[in-house]
Amino acid sequence: MAFTKLFEEGKIGKLTLKNRVVMPAMGVGLAEPDGHANEHIIRYYEERARGGVGLIITEVTRVEPMYGTACPCQLGAYKLSHITGIQRLTDRVHRHGARIFMQLHHPGRENHAIQIEGRQIVAPSEVMCKVCQEMPRALSTEEVEGLVKAFVNGAVIAKAGGMDGVELHGAHGYLLNEFMSPYTNKREDKYGGSFEKRLTIMQEIIAGIREQCGPDYPISVRISADEFVDGGLKIEDTVEIAKCLESWGINVINVSTGIYESSTTIVEPASFAQGWKKHLALAIKGAVSIPVIAVNNIKEPSVAEALLEEGVCDFIGVARANLADPEWSRKAECGKEAEINRCIGCLNCFGAIGANGHIKCTVNPRCGREVEFDKINRNGDGRTVAVIGGGPAGMEAALTLKERGFKPVIFEKENVLGGQLNLADKPVLKDKLGAYKNGLIARVENSGIEVRLGTEATVENVKDVDPVGVFLTSGGTPIIPPIPGIDGSNVITAEEFLSGAKDVKDGSVVVIGGGNTGMEVAETLCYKGREVTLVEMLDQIGRGLYPSVLVDYITRVTKQGEKICTGQKVLSVDDKGIVIQSTKDHTEARVDADNVIVALGVKSENALLKPLKELGIPVLAAGDANVPGRIMEATLDAVNLAYGFME
């Protein structure tokens, strides 16, 4: 479909944007430790500019290093030497017709002392963040006045570096949000007390930027329309805040939601619907005359178009979708939306940043590694490479090999591409995973890659295509531990259940294994009205999941009546259920159930590895066929190997 609204020009103040797609700020951790922009962060943003985004807003950019550093390799705008790198960044973004704002930020109480060399974190008042769990020191009046100057100085540096505008981060529970909110501001000086005084810091910063950068320099303010905590800002409050901000001369309001203590409303897990918070942006848009940018968990351009048609906002914030596919905008505009590499809402991107690394993406192995994957060696010369397995690893390997000029041939024993994704998208609330699978398949089909469906690879038929190498991406097979009774008639595997090969009988169900698959199977059965118990040997289910994803899951299934037993080893299975033993005190107990589902992961399926190597050509195992893991590990493994193959 044509996305007329999405790709029409728009204006912020006197600045014209080529379309209505905005990539809002996301921490990426790609700058130098001292805040300088380097080639890694420049290439990251340039990829999104080349992909068609109208406006990019940089990651949180620190305006002072003493208390304002939020991650080890964060952009900086607090000293003159930052200007040169910022100039290079803006030049590269402008090359592709995009505009760029710098987001000025201070973490306040949502931070850790380790990020600021052991110093105590600071905030408007001594109110501890329940997530960070470190008590902040209240800033003095003089320190706040100094921070006002730091934000203004950051804007001066941004403008000197060619930035098209700046954004003040007044959302998500960070410092400026903390001042505006009665939940975190208990001050009694000029920066706290009444509604008006809580906004004084914003008024002074905006006035300072106007004085230093001129009346026409674009200023955006990002706000959380609802903090979703008792005692925090609600939409009625933020509507009034928005009116004040407009009266002080800002040019655009960027509407988000939440603070760390309501983090699922900031970066939504996969269960959240697209557009779920549009009513909040609509309320603010109805109260101001300046443009409104709004994030709404957007994955699909059709949803973005609909929000513009409804008048919810003037510009669409497309965040994680631009991590998953830097060409999201271009593909939508050119009628290739079926090929968009979809974000699946796993939040591993934020997990990577939270671990003090750089940005990563489960479905886009090149995200955060744009420099590493920049110079591809196109030396394939049409030579054939056999790819065994049409799952995510196999498809990513084939696409990369095709890009390098090889002729990949995919052997897939099933009649459809997708591999384990054809099971993973079956549980409830997995529509985004299904969309990712479909987009990946569309890219393969439209690339002209030869695919042999319903063809199980053998040494003979692989040899028949005369390959110069083989990629073994045949996935894995379910792990069935040697537990007494595990082969009973009431026992099936998660794979059998999800594929429809076998179903559970009437009655209750116990699921053995609290990893991703076990969790999803258990929830699916809960939604079908079954009595379900999930048993996990570790002390917590969902190992490796981003915390808010796990919290979201537990909140949902608790309402459905699912029972979760952690720290329990399964000793035996019988036709009445299972016997478990505590890993702490070794006490035993029974879990009665009519059905048992085993969801303990997979082991590598690579029986062809040795005989294929006897052909005397390179054979590379990737994904689960190499080391069982998540989609993130499988796709990165495949793309890495395909890049390095016969260089």
CATH class of the largest domain: Alpha Beta
Query: Average pLDDT value?
Result: 97
CATH topology of the largest domain: TIM Barrel
The second-level CATH architecture of the largest domain is Alpha-Beta Barrel
> End-to-end span in angstroms?
40 Å
The main β sheet shows up as: 8 strands, parallel, barrel
In total, the number of domains comes to 3
- For CATH, the homologous superfamily of the largest domain is named as Aldolase class I
Task: Tell me, briefly, the overall form.
Answer: globular
Low-confidence stretches: none
Structural class comes to alpha/beta
Helical percent range? 25-40%
Query: From the alpha-carbon coordinates, what is the Rg to the nearest angstrom?
Result: 26 Å
Give your account of this protein's structure:
This protein is α/β, with parallel strands linked by helices and 647 residues long. The protein has 3 domains: 10-354, Alpha-Beta Barrel (TIM Barrel), CATH 3.20.20.70; 384-478 and 604-644, Rossmann fold, CATH 3.40.50; 491-600, FAD/NAD(P)-binding domain (3-Layer(bba) Sandwich). It is built from 21 helices and 28 strands. The strands form 7 sheets. An 8-stranded parallel barrel has the order 3-4-6-9-10-11-12-13, surrounded by 6 helices. It has a 5-stranded parallel β-sheet with strand order 16-15-14-17-28. α19 links the parallel β21 (532-535) and β22 (563-565). α13 (392-403) runs parallel beside α21. The longest helix is centred in the first third of the chain and has 20 residues, at 141-160. It is globular. The two termini are 40 Å apart. The model has no long low-confidence stretch (mean pLDDT 97).
